[in-house]
Design goal:
globular, mainly alpha, about 425 residues
């Protein structure tokens, strides 16, 4: 026997000691694939519609419009309007000039994450796009798991598909905070329903430094803690509900104390603004420069909605974006009672306040604001059990997503 054969036999006996069938490549869990498929399909619609809308129309290449990446259309189309403020924060930090549009109106978590990614790529636009897409995929995963927990898997699949192809879901890809806010807010509520109050609090804190409405997530999580201990708004008139709540406070006070730390996210940002600009509410002080004035709910409807009724729909000379925003606000408000009945008062109040707070200063961007109101899409997922409703959403949402994307990339203000 040759020396080679001896080594070969030795190796053979060595490997026979191991059962290689026990070694398997890790597989992704079942809850990953439906969100991933919805993510791929919807982002394909956005990328293709944006690309062809840009090269075929080219309405936004005049000198008054910026293009952060003119040599790469696939990146450039995802930076429009408010995207410039986030990129500016990444590159130069916060600035405040009273009476003028200033970037302090925008909250810090999204530009902070973009800055961290930018350490690797040295391209703020690319880094922002990466943050948006990763956040959106994670948001879909959490939303799928939350809806499965509260409803069933089929409803969860419809929910994530509807929100992925909603006409304004293009903002989940753009350098905007929609994807990140959806991610942290859904994660906070998911962990609250799983009774993991520590993680629920952490994500609620992050929501507070992503957008001003992140404070409302604190309310949803707090109400869920109270509900877990037998107290709800609908039963608050009963003595038993208060007794249950008192028992919950005595037995689970540490979780409640942890939840009460969640507003520290917003308070820390306010402390920073106070130190830098001597105005802890600077993000609110500059809103008038963005044409948002506190006229109240009825005042805004009179200013924005009533004039639409006198416009000429036959000639097309209408205030179309205000019509869309107003319709979105009315739809969300009208859907709140259905959310209350199906998912409880926490989700219903979250929708009402998330609409009424910005609506008190203007209808602008409401089609974008309702995009992150995930209970609305969970409700749509329930409605989608009817085949006719599902067909409607399945057909018209992707079509208008493509149209709205082409509008957005050509610098026509959408939301």
């Amino acid at each position: 026997m040759t020396q080679f054969s001896k080594h070969q036999d030795t190796l053979k006996k060595y490997f026979e000691k191991f059962d290689l069938s026990q070694f398997k490549l890790p597989t992704l869990p079942d809850w990953f694939w439906p969100p991933f498929q919805a993510f791929l399909f919807s982002r394909m619609v956005v990328w293709l519609a944006g690309y062809f809308g840009e090269i075929m129309i080219k309405a936004g290449w005049e000198k008054d419009f910026y293009h952060l990446s003119p040599d790469n259309i696939f990146l450039d189309i995802l930076a429009r309007w408010d995207s410039g403020f986030y990129i500016n924060i990444v590159e130069e930090g916060y600035m405040l000039v009273y009476g003028r549009i200033s970037n302090v109106a925008f909250f810090p978590l999204y530009p902070m994450l973009t800055s961290l990614v930018d350490v690797l790529f040295n391209n703020p636009l690319l880094s922002g796009v990466i943050v948006s897409h990763i956040s959106f995929l994670i948001a879909l995963i959490y939303l799928f798991r939350l809806t499965t927990l509260l409803c069933d898997e089929d409803t969860a699949k419809r929910t994530i598909f509807y929100i992925s192809v909603f006409p304004t879901s293009l903002f989940f890809s753009a350098v905007y905070t929609e994807s990140l806010f959806l991610c942290v807010s859904v994660a906070a509520v998911y962990y609250a329903h799983k009774r993991n109050w520590e993680l629920a609090t952490i994500f609620t804190l992050l929501a507070g430094v992503t957008r001003i409405t992140g404070l409302l997530v604190f309310g949803v999580v707090g109400l869920e803690w109270m509900r877990s201990h037998g107290w709800t708004l609908l039963t608050c008139y009963k003595k038993e509900a208060w007794q249950n709540l008192w028992q919950g406070i005595k037995k689970d006070w540490y979780s409640l104390l942890f939840i009460l730390l969640a507003p520290l996210g917003l308070l820390s940002h306010m402390a920073f603004l106070g130190d830098q600009f001597q105005d802890p509410m600077a993000f609110w002080s500059v809103q008038s420069a963005f044409n948002r004035h506190n006229l109240g709910f009825l005042g805004i409807l009179m200013r924005d909605f009533v004039p639409i009724l006198s416009q000429n729909f036959w000639t097309g000379g209408i205030w179309w974006n205000v019509l869309l925003d107003t319709s979105a606000a009315i739809f969300a408000l009208a859907a709140a009672p259905f959310v209350l009945r199906r998912f409880g008062e926490g989700f219903a109040i979250y929708i009402l306040l998330s609409v009424l707070v910005p609506l008190s200063s203007g209808t602008g961007s409401m089609t974008r604001y309702i995009l992150v109101l995930f209970p609305l899409f969970m409700l749509m997922g329930v409605w989608g059990q009817r085949e006719s409703v599902h067909r409607f959403f399945q057909t018209f949402f992707p079509i208008f997503l493509g149209i709205f994307t082409a509008v957005f990339v050509n610098w026509i203000f959408l939301a």
